[in-house]
Amino acid sequence: MLPGNKAEFANMFERPIINGQCIDSTASDKRLMQFRSHVLHSLVEGFVQRRSHLVLQRALPRKAEWVFLVKMSPIQTLLYKEFIRYIRFQAEMGSSPPNPIKAFAICCKIWNHPDVLYNAVAKKDKLNEQAVLEDLEDLAEEVEFKRKRGGGRKRNSGNTNNSTLDGFNPQDGPQDEDDSFPGGCSSSHSSWTNASTSRAPAGKEKDGESAFNFEWSLNAFKGYVPNVLENGTKFELLFIIIQESLKAGDKLLVFSQSLLTLNLMEIFIGMKLQWSKGKEYFRLDGSTTGLERERLIKEFNKNPDIHVFLVSTRAGSLGINLIGANRVVVFDASWNPCHDCQAVCRIYRYP
Is the pTM for the entire model greater than 0.85? Predict the structure, then answer.
């Protein structure tokens, strides 16, 4: 039988096996390594089975995958270009390079639907849209006061705050980009370039965007109307897939790595399909308890009236069987492709 604790296991198997694999291992070390490896294998072979996906190829049905390339809507394009400008402006100001994963998280908010970023900007820390705009107006008043006191614009000065505050105008719209690059910076930056280094942003995210402020997006969101499905082309395509799946009698899993995106999906499902959570669709994320997860999984697999399951990629891409569905939508690709592959395997597996 196996040793009872980690120290005993290390003395009996781990250290002899490792010592016998070194370049300077003696003949006796190698013989001991082979002997202990054989003993360990004989002890665990009844519990550990190593199989690749090849053993399932004959048993599982053929899997078909589609990758859709969709254009961004006008507001998404504007937000994306403004964010690229913001990144390039930070580089010009000598700031440290942004964390690429944090930048990717912000881009996902833009790509998924502008409402995701809009809600993050307008409602984070209990701020609504009016509070954000009022904050911007206060900033403009502060800038105007400093401009009058300073007596003119300063360029290339040692004080970064003064140089960036001068010339700030919250009414300025986004400037035209250089034709050579879709997110190029023109000679005159938008208002966020002047405000970004002056003070902390109105709203920050805790899940990976704390290094960025969101003031670069305020000009693009002036006059923005939320809860419009057509503002996000990926959402339009998703609801077409849901409707076609319903016609075909299919059940659908929708994976997203963003909880804010899942929240928005629920809003549009209620608006467009008049569905209720727990009746026509389920949701599983990190806040779902273990007992509730098990209940939702069993109910989804056997109940034909549950058509869609919204799943957080990080919370639901491992360890669950949702074989009641036969279609999977990976709504936003993860920076780690393993997460997306595991999400697909929630249905493409043995019960």
Answer: no
